[in-house]
From TrEMBL, chain A:
Belongs to the binding-protein-dependent transport system permease family. The chain crosses the membrane at residues 6-24, 31-48, 60-82, 94-115, 121-141, 190-210, 216-239. It comes from the Bacteria. Keywords: Cell membrane, Membrane, Transmembrane, Transmembrane helix, Transport. Its main location: membrane. It is found in: Cell membrane. This is ABC transporter permease subunit. Residues 56-234 form the ABC transmembrane type-1 domain. PANTHER family: ABC TRANSPORTER PERMEASE PROTEIN MJ0413-RELATED (PTHR30151:SF0), ALKANE SULFONATE ABC TRANSPORTER-RELATED, MEMBRANE SUBUNIT (PTHR30151). It is a multi-pass membrane protein. It comes from Stappia sediminis. One of its GO terms (cellular component) is plasma membrane.
From TrEMBL, chain B:
Its main location: membrane. It holds the Pfam family BPD_transp_1. Gene3D superfamilies: MetI-like (1.10.3720.10). This is ABC transporter permease subunit. It is a multi-pass membrane protein. Coiled coil: none annotated. One of its GO terms (biological process) is transmembrane transport. Residues 55-236 form the ABC transmembrane type-1 domain. Belongs to the binding-protein-dependent transport system permease family. Keywords: Cell membrane, Membrane, Transmembrane, Transmembrane helix, Transport.
Length: 250, 253, 268
C-alpha cells in the first residue's frame, strides 16, 4: 500500500484500527468496548498483579510442556513414518483423523481421566499441536530428493551419518514449518483447555473478570494474549525463513 | 495381495479398537468404558432418536455460522486480494486473528449476546472466518501472472479477467480454505456447546458425565468426531474430483 | 556513442522497400533506477519473421511485452500499421513461454478463449477454434484438458489460440523453450510453413542462436545493460533451399558462428 508514494509498513493499519477502537469506546456506544486508552492503562496495572502473573506462569508452563511433548514425540514419529512403509500405513489414517477432528470434544474425556488440572491442559495442548508436526516431518522425509539419498550412499555414508548429515537437514524446512503451525495450534489448545477446565490460568482469570464485569481488564488480558500469540507465530515464521532459505533450491 | 492399503487400514482400526477394549476391561480408570460398551450406548442413542435430535441442535449454529463466514469471508477475501488498499486495511486483522487464540473471546460474546444461538453462531464465525479470508485473498494474489497477461493481451476487460481467469484460478484454494474453515467451525460449535450452554451433543456429553454414564459420553464424543472427519473427508474427495488437474497444466510439470 | 543499429550484413530484399508492420521508436524502459531498454528503435517488416536474440537479461521479453501493450515504455512509442500502441489490441496476439492455458478449460475453450473475450457467439467461435485445432495437428483432443497433454501439445494449443483471433501480428515469447529438443525442431519447421502460408508478421523472442537463424527473415541482436540493438542480420541465401537443407548450408553456419562470436563476451 502506497500513500503519496510512501510505502506504508505492512501492519500499520492496526494503528488506524486502534484509533477506531478508541473513538468507539469514547462514544459510549457499548458497555462492552471501553476506550483503548483505558484498556492500556488497565493493562499496565494488571501486568503487576499476582493473579495475572500466576495465570501467565501456569499458561506458559502448560504451553511449553505441550509443545515439548509434541515436538519430542511428533518429529521422530513423523520421520519413522516417512522411512517405514508399514508403520506409515498403520498410523497415517489416525494422524489424518486427529488432524481434522474437532479435538474440543475430547477435552471432557481428558477431564474425567486426568482430573481438572494442569495434566489435562498439557495433554489438550499436545493433542492440538502434535498431528501437524507428525504429518510435516513425514512429508519432509518423503520429499527428500532421490539423488540426495543416492549421493549419500555413493559416498559411503553410514546410516547414522546419512541421517544426521543429510536426511534431517533435507527435511528440516518442512519439519520447521510443521513446528510453527503446531505451536500456533498449541496456543489455541492451551486457551481452549483453560476455558473448559476453567480453574487454572487465564481461564480462571476470564471467569473472574466476566463475573465482575471488568471489561477493561478483560480486553487488557486479550491484548496481551493475542499480542503474545502473534509475536510467537511471527518469530517462528522469521526463524523458518532464516533457516529454510535453501528449501526452494534443493 | 488384495488391496494392501485397505487391509492395513482395517488392521490399524482393529488394533486401536482392541487396545481400547482391553484398556476398558482392565480397567485403566473407572471413567474408561470398553469399546463395545461405548458402541452399545451409541446404538441405543441412535435407536431412541436422542442422537438425531442432538445433531439437529448442534448442526444449527454450525450451518448458520459457516454460511455467514463463507459468504462474507470469500467476498472480503476477493476484495483484499484485488485491492492493495483493502489488503493494507484488513489483512493485519485476519493475520492476527489467524494466530490468536480466539476462543478467549467466548466469555465476552456470552456477556454481549447472551447464551443463545447468536453467541454460538458468533463463535463458529470467528473460528472459521480468518482461514477463509486469508486463503481467498492469497489465492487471488497468486493468480499466475501469465494467465492475467494472457487475458489482457486477448483484450479481456478487468471484469472479465476477474470473472473468467482470477476466480476460476483461485477456486481450488478458496475451496480448501472453506474446508479448513468448516473444520475450525466444528471446533467452535462443540466448544460453544461445552462452554456456553449444553445443548445438542454437548448436552449429551455434559449430562452423561454428571450422572457417570461414561459409555454414553464416549459414544457421543466418538460420534461427533466420526461425523466431522467423515464430512471433511467427503469435502476433500469432492475437492479432488472437482479441481482435478486445475492446479496442474503449467510449464513446470 | 552511436546507438543506431549498425547494418553490416543487410541484404535488402532485391532492392525494393518493404513495408513495416511494427515499428518501435526510441523506446526506453526503466524499472526504478535500473535501465532495461534505452532508445531502442527497430522495424519489423510485414509478412516476415523477426527474431529478438540476445543473452538473458537483455530485455527481449520486456520489448515484446511493450509491443504487446502489456507494459508501458518509460518513453518512446510503438506503432502497429502506423497507429500508436496504447494497450493490448486486436491487431496483435501473444504466444506465451509458459503457454498460459486455463487449466480448468478444455482445449476447445482455450483455443476459443480469445474470440470469447471478443464477444464472438459460441457456435461461431467454436467452429473457428476447431479449424485451428486441426491446423496445429490436435484434432481429436478438443475435449481434453491441458494437464492431459504433453508440453509440446500445450504449446500447440497456445499457438492455435493466437491464430484463432486472426491478428496481423503474432508475438511469440520464447514459445519453444519449454518443450523438448525434438518437438522444438518440429515446431521450427512448422513455424517456417506458417510464415509462408499465413500472411502475418511474426515477432519471435529466443535465446537459441540456431533457432533464430533457422526461422528468421531478420535477426535483431540485442545486447544488455542497457539493452540496445547491436546488429541486424538478414539471412538471404538459404531460405529458398527447403527446410531440411538449411542446417547444413554454409551461410547458415557462418551466421550462427558470427553471432556466437559477438555474444560470447556477454555470457557469464
Amino acid at each position: 500500500m502506497r500513500v503519496f508514494g510512501i510505502r506504508l509498513p505492512a501492519m500499520s493499519s492496526l494503528i488506524l484500527w486502534g484509533m477506531i477502537w478508541e473513538i468507539v469506546g469514547r462514544s459510549g456506544l457499548t458497555f462492552f468496548v471501553p476506550p483503548l486508552s483505558e484498556v492500556l492503562v488497565t493493562l499496565y496495572s494488571v501486568l503487576g498483579t499476582p493473579a495475572f502473573q500466576k495465570a501467565l506462569m501456569e499458561t506458559a508452563y502448560a504451553f511449553f510442556m505441550g509443545v515439548l511433548f509434541s515436538v519430542a514425540i511428533g518429529i521422530p514419529t513423523g520421520i519413522l513414518m516417512g522411512k517405514n512403509r508399514l508403520i506409515d500405513e498403520l498410523l497415517l489414517p489416525w494422524v489424518n483423523i486427529f488432524l481434522s477432528a474437532p479435538l474440543t470434544a475430547l477435552v471432557p474425556v481428558l477431564m474425567v481421566l486426568f482430573g481438572f488440572g494442569m495434566k489435562s491442559i498439557v495433554i489438550t495442548t499436545t493433542l492440538f499441536a502434535i498431528w501437524i508436526i507428525i504429518l510435516n516431518s513425514r512429508a519432509g522425509v518423503l520429499q527428500i530428493n532421490r539423488s540426495l539419498v543416492e549421493m549419500a550412499r555413493c559416498f559411503g555414508a553410514s546410516p547414522l551419518a546419512a541421517f544426521t548429515k543429510v536426511y534431517f537437514w533435507a527435511a528440516l524446512p518442512e519439519i520447521l514449518g510443521g513446528v510453527r503451525i503446531g505451536v500456533i495450534r498449541a496456543v489455541k489448545g492451551v486457551i481452549i483447555g483453560q476455558l473448559l477446565i476453567s480453574i487454572v490460568g487465564f481461564g480462571a482469570l476470564f471467569e473472574l473478570y466476566s463475573n465482575n464485569f471488568l471489561m477493561a481488564h478483560f480486553w487488557a488480558v486479550l491484548i496481551v494474549l493475542f499480542g503474545m500469540a502473534f509475536t510467537i507465530s511471527e518469530f517462528l515464521a522469521y526463524l523458518e525463513r532464516r533457516i529454510s532459505y535453501y528449501a526452494a533450491k534443493r | 495381495m488384495p488391496n494392501r492399503s485397505l487391509v492395513l487400514k482395517v488392521l490399524s482400526a482393529v488394533i486401536v479398537f482392541s487396545a481400547w477394549e482391553i484398556a476398558g476391561r482392565i480397567p485403566v480408570s473407572y471413567a474408561f468404558p470398553t469399546f463395545l460398551e461405548s458402541m452399545n450406548a451409541l446404538v441405543h442413542m441412535t435407536i431412541d432418536g436422542r442422537l438425531f435430535s442432538a445433531y439437529a441442535e448442534t448442526l444449527q449454529p454450525l450451518a448458520v455460522g459457516i454460511a455467514i463466514s463463507a459468504t462474507l469471508g470469500i467476498a472480503l477475501g476477493l476484495w483484499i486480494g484485488l485491492s492493495s488498499w483493502f489488503d493494507w486495511l484488513f489483512s493485519p486483522i485476519f493475520i492476527v486473528m489467524q494466530a490468536a487464540p480466539l476462543a478467549a473471546l467466548i466469555p465476552l460474546l456470552v456477556m454481549a449476546y447472551g447464551i443463545g444461538l447468536t453467541s454460538k453462531v458468533f463463535v463458529v464465525c470467528i473460528m472459521a472466518m480468518p482461514v477463509i479470508v486469508l486463503n481467498t485473498a492469497g489465492a487471488v494474489r497468486n493468480t499466475p501472472t501469465s494467465l492475467t497477461e494472457m487475458g489482457r493481451s486477448f483484450l479481456a476487460s478487468d471484469y472479465e479477467v476477474i470473472l473468467k481467469i482470477i476466480i476460476p484460478a483461485a477456486s481450488p484454494v478458496i475451496f480448501s480454505g472453506l474446508r479448513l474453515g468448516i473444520s475450525a467451525g466444528f471446533i467452535g460449535a462443540i466448544l460453544s456447546e461445552l462452554k456456553i450452554t449444553p445443548t445438542g451433543i454437548g448436552d449429551i456429553i455434559t449430562y452423561s458425565r454428571s450422572i457417570a454414564d461414561y459409555p454414553s459420553m464416549y459414544a457421543a464424543i466418538f460420534s461427533i468426531i466420526f461425523l466431522a472427519v467423515l464430512f471433511l473427508n467427503l469435502l476433500e474427495k469432492i475437492e479432488a474430483t472437482l479441481f482435478a488437474g486445475n492446479v496442474r497444466g503449467y510449464v513446470s510439470d | 556513442m552511436d546507438m543506431s543499429p549498425t547494418r553490416k550484413n543487410v541484404v535488402e530484399a532485391s532492392g525494393f522497400k518493404v513495408e513495416n508492420a511494427v515499428s518501435t521508436r526510441k523506446i526506453s524502459k526503466n524499472y526504478g533506477p535500473v535501465e532495461a531498454l534505452r532508445n531502442l528503435s527497430l522495424d519489423f517488416p510485414k509478412g516476415q519473421l523477426t527474431s529478438l536474440l540476445g543473452p538473458s537479461g537483455c530485455g527481449k521479453t520486456t520489448l515484446l511485452k511493450i509491443i504487446a501493450g502489456l507494459l508501458e515504455p518509460t518513453s518512446g512509442e510503438v506503432e502497429v500499421n502506423g497507429r500508436a500502441v496504447t494497450g493490448p489490441g486486436p491487431d496483435r496476439a501473444f504466444v506465451f513461454q509458459d503457454f498460459a492455458l486455463l487449466p480448468w478449460a478444455s482445449v476447445l475453450r482455450n483455443v476459443a478463449f480469445g474470440l470469447e473475450l471478443r464477444g464472438v457467439a459460441k457456435s461461431e467461435r467454436e467452429a473457428v477454434a476447431e479449424k485451428y485445432i486441426r491446423d496445429v495437428g490436435l484434432a481429436g483432443f478438443e475435449k481434453n484438458y491441458p494437464h492431459e497433454l504433453s508440453g509440446g501439445m500445450r504449446q500447440r494449443v497456445g499457438l492455435a489460440r493466437a491464430l484463432a483471433v486472426d491478428s496481423e501480428v503474432l508475438l511469440m515469447d520464447e514459445p519453444f523453450s519449454a518443450v523438448d529438443e525434438q518437438t522444438r525442431r518440429k515446431f521450427q519447421e512448422d513455424l517456417l510453413n506458417l510464415v509462408q502460408t499465413e500472411n502475418k508478421t511474426f515477432i519471435f523472442v529466443t535465446h537459441s542462436i540456431e533457432e533464430a537463424v533457422y526461422v528468421s527473415d531478420q535477426i535483431a541482436i540485442l545486447l544488455p545493460r542497457p539493452s540496445r540493438v547491436s546488429e541486424i542480420i538478414r539471412p538471404a541465401g538459404f531460405r529458398s533451399k527447403g527446410a531440411e537443407n538449411i542446417r547444413r548450408d554454409l551461410e547458415y553456419l557462418d551466421i550462427v558462428d558470427r553471432i556466437w562470436a559477438s555474444l560470447r563476451t556477454y555470457v557469464e
